[in-house]
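Quick log. Single chain, no ligands specified.
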Amino acid sequence: MDINIRELHTLEEWTQSFEVMKALRTNLSLESYLSLRQVMTQEGYQLFGLYAEGELVSLAGIRLCTNLYNGRHVFIYDLVTSPHHRSHGYGERLLTSIHEYGREQGAVLVALESGVARKDAHRFYEERMGYTRRSYSFRKEI
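-> predicted structure:
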């Protein structure tokens, strides 16, 4: 099978990626997605896509970060595979590619957050990909 992983840069690529992303970010419209793109990319957000046989099937939205508790790291904001293409190893291949990219960029780890109800995702991260659950994430609207 022909697999290609690459960063999405153009407005056309981002527009095409919305169909996959909305499986994860159900609150977004195409217009809000593209509007946020402008700000996010200025702040260092990168969107990578996995193409299988020329079709975009998985996305990973990341940012290279440095802070006191993780040092230089990759933070994954979005990781999603199209519902029609799950359980084919695409998420694992894309995540492995992000790990390699992070190492090339001098990162020492990869971090992410996952909603408390996403038990299948947690099992994937911990059992399949070797992630450890290290903290809770707290939020307060202001």
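The mean pLDDT is 91.
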